[in-house]
Amino acid sequence: MNFMLKDENAIYYECGYSCDNALYLRLGKEAFFITDSRYTIDAQEHVRGAQVVIERDLYTKAAQILKKAKVKKVIFDPKEWSVAGFEVLISKTKVHFKPEPDFSHKKRIIKRDEELQIIAKAAKLGAKAFKAFAKEIGKEGFGKDEFALTYMAKGALSGYGKYDISFDPIVAINGNAAKPHATPTKKRLKEGDLLLVDAGLKYKRYCSDRTRTVFAEKGFVFKSKQTFGKKKIQKAYDTVLKAHDNAIAKARSGMKAKEVDALTRDLIEKAGFGKYYVHSTGHGVGLDIHEMPYIASKSETVIEDSMVFTIEPGIYIPGEFGIRIEDMVAMVDGRAKVL
Amino acid sequence: MNFMLKDENAIYYECGYSCDNALYLRLGKEAFFITDSRYTIDAQEHVRGAQVVIERDLYTKAAQILKKAKVKKVIFDPKEWSVAGFEVLISKTKVHFKPEPDFSHKKRIIKRDEELQIIAKAAKLGAKAFKAFAKEIGKEGFGKDEFALTYMAKGALSGYGKYDISFDPIVAINGNAAKPHATPTKKRLKEGDLLLVDAGLKYKRYCSDRTRTVFAEKGFVFKSKQTFGKKKIQKAYDTVLKAHDNAIAKARSGMKAKEVDALTRDLIEKAGFGKYYVHSTGHGVGLDIHEMPYIASKSETVIEDSMVFTIEPGIYIPGEFGIRIEDMVAMVDGRAKVL
Question: Which residues of chain B are within 8 Å of residue A176 when distances are taken between CB atoms?
């Protein structure tokens, strides 16, 4: 099989190294990692199973290699390639480029044992970071705004510089938590607020992802049992937690992703919050923070052992509050194991 | 003129708002900002001079609008568009899409007064962050490794959470500074080391960019006069500083960018360091950290008033040390004014 990759994580998956300007060609048994001279030393040291080629214009070089190899058909993912780069290949070769959306993501949906170990470690470090963050908030977080709290979260997640983070953490108070993709505001945290934190870090390039919603009071921790002052919030919280626990307890290899989605959705709908559950149950996690499988109400994907994904039901009441509880699970021996 | 944009900053420039999933169409006097429902509220509040359209599939919606408007020709930048997205437009319309590389960057090369003010403020905040970072290093930076120092730099640059940063800061000691795009190592800072810091922040989405190289001792500041223990380093440093100052003093509107480049390059070559000056003199700065004009040895671009770019000559001796001094300038009344 011949294929070509442009996405940084897709390339890393094939050869154990990547950078922000690289192109990967697999032509039968041969493979080529093309990058520019800034990355010569690192590429030569880390790329496995591919020839390192240094060239300023990656696309023209790729066209040369394709012509020389006389290949007829090459698979590519049209989401990964810019019109400009692809145009160079089209104009300089007579290869039949076969579009295959999500080509690399499909390859990566079942995790190898080594990947499962790395992801489990990432998840552990992520959980540890939440503990550290709670402690810091208890010490000096009350009175600070969401910008400052987000900055604080980044510190804890990164191990104060040791790790990259998987995405800009969401740290949202009360009404702002009602936006699933909340960005920071100048709202300040006070005791008795609802606080939602959605955050992750990267360990050996693999992502962690975790969300907790808490009743913020001095000395709080990010545990799943939470007691809120208001009944409506408590009911929503307990519903989300039940939906979350239900999906983790009952997800099985062999189910369709939409059946797993129903394990959270049905409970939330029955509790009367259906229209406030505005997203899917979860998504795969690996080198990318969002990858396959997608645990969505229309997904026919069959869940299998060694898939890794999130379970993250939520209820969002505009202007009032938002609740989400998220864990990563790996499918092991037919069941969901929380990482 | 009709054009379409996909790049986040290109879109922001047209309508004062953008997000990570948007598509912008300008069709004669009409304009459309298409995004998904996550951004409805923000888009409706902030988009200027364009109709906000909410739709899950941006490309199909754009095709519908193009068909309805019966336009014949639309300009686009092929670097901005994925093959997958562009394919939707090609297959669903009969429009002639005219590729124009760097379409938005070309529009943005001359800064408006309002932009100049914002960029000047970004540069000032950037300089202030360098001061704060030097102070922090003096207090607790010696003995820390480049990962921890980079984390510290991010703190100072972001105003501890108030600002985004323009790019991952480079904080490199001695030999590691010889890589123009150095990434952190476990090398620890000790007194008497050479320390290179290249960093910037964003103010109202516009970037700052600044580099200083210093002899690190207790109480150091990021000033341009520096005294190093070793003669070779001192000679290289003084050469870079002279080249930097020469370009700022002699750059004029009306010159070609390659002539400005020569103002740093000739001096460094004459001092015998030519082969260690491995990059261009500078690059434009604005919404993107790298934009037009490029101050490079082959660039025929004519420098004009209200352009903003960096002057950042460097000397890199592999395995030994690297030196770079970088400031942002705006062309004002024919001359380069340091921001």
Answer: none
